[in-house]
Request: fold
Amino acid sequence: MKNRKTRRVIFTALWVLAFALVNYPIGAWASTKLTPVILGLPFSVFYFWTAYSLLVLAGVLLAWKVMRD
Amino acid sequence: MANWQIIMIIVAIYCAVVIAVGVFTRTKGQTSLADYFVGNRSLGAFVAFFTYVATFHSSFAFIGAAGQMYSAGIKFFATFTSCVVSPLMIYIIGRPTWYLGQKYNYMTQGELVGDYYESKTLRYLVAIVSLIFLVPYLQSQIAAGGIIFQTISEGRVSYLMGCVILYAVIIGYILLGGFKAVAWTDTIQGVLMIVMIWIAGGVVLVRTSGSMNWTALMQTMATDFPEKVLIPVEYWPTYMTSFISLFGISIYPPSFQRFFAVKNPKTLKWLSVTTPIYLIFFYVPIMIIAFSGVVYMPGLEKADQVVPMMLTQYASPILVGLVMAGALAATMSSTDSQLHSASSIFTVDLYKGVKPDVSDKKALFAGKVFIVVISAAALVLSQYSNALITTIVTIALGGCLQILPSLIGALYWKGASKMGAISGLIVGVTVVVLTQYVPAIKTPLGLSSGFWGLVCNLLVFFIVSKLTPKPSAANIEKFHGYLAEVNRQCDEKAAAK
Reply:
């Protein structure tokens, strides 16, 4: 039980961190940058795809490590 | 044979296939309400996944999203947040809903909250709010079908006729097969959508840029249309709150009904983690097509036409036919779920609410008649709206989101009261309508009407609940006691492992 509570705190914090990446102020900063171009994408576009992918990953971890059933 | 004829033949074959699914999934003999409306609660992970994502992904994704990216660029990324966050609601709301549905045979939201708050008024209110906000979404889907048929036939099939064809095909398989037909056609449609949009994105990129490398396209976007690959600072309040409104996706009756239909809660857990992956991947090719449209087909009168127009211009007729079948699939998979859900709300909450002793056979007949009537109403309305599909969808989801507080009370908060739920819902819906349609107070601070509705709803729900009587102790135990017991058993099992 105690393990589950610790896991809940850790993975929820991880998810909130990933969620913060696509929000103000970090996301707002990234959304005004056209350079550097990464993988052929303007920085703003690359950043959001990457940040959303991280958020999806954090969600998967949260579900598997914390959720019941 | 002319290109448009080849495309129309492929689309016709697709329509025949989905009707065939309706025929094959038809239950022989007497059909029960649970069979017709929640597929006997037997949906496995594979079908549940595709029926959920296909319901979630309507023409809004295939047509509307591309239109938004074409006209406003990456500001559309704001909705991705909802694609990632709202699936978590599948677990938070869906899991307890599944347990309660299994235990007490619920099939709709109205049934569940009406029973918890011991209020038929609330049950009817939830049903009416759901139906009111289902219609605009339904209307937008039928409108999208009309646009698709009109575009692929190069105007030979009129917009009205396109809407009628879509309407007839969907009605056909829903009336035949009920929930199973909806779930299985959604599965076919979900696969078709993701495969075809990726092929379409690739083909458009190759035909416009000469290779699969998107660097040139993105460089042109950054140089010539920088406003489309940046998000202006003033957009951030909208950006950061739009996902809250889109939480409504999980509360939206067609999605919510899947919570009752899956065979176990583990399926819901799978849904909550796999859905975002599908949703995020879906938008990569959509972005490529939309940005290619910005560069190679600027100035389209209707932004929503960018996918069909780009494809008819740059792809072979067979591919256009297949992709347009995918677009129709996106439209149909949402429309069928909405119609089916509307029918279950009418039958279970309203018809059976007024006539509790009516037989399943009569109730089902009434439900089927309602499908024909409500879709005819949406068909008529689809002829009178010029709003972007995305806008209509946002209003519909924001409206349905107002049911959330009453659900939270039934699933999590023992302090909620009947009057709190009723007054919160009424205030929430009123605020959504006012902040959407009254020019003087339209979307204050740039925040969506669904967001404002939810804030006011929650405030009223909380304050009124504090001041008015709670449901009976027996009913609180029936819901919260049962859910606590389920959780305790789950924890014990996990600890034993």
Notes: Residues 3-385 of chain B form a domain with the Sodium/glucose cotransporter fold (CATH 1.20.1730.10). Chain B is about 80% helix and 0% strand. The mean pLDDT of chain B is 85. The radius of gyration of chain B is 22 Å.
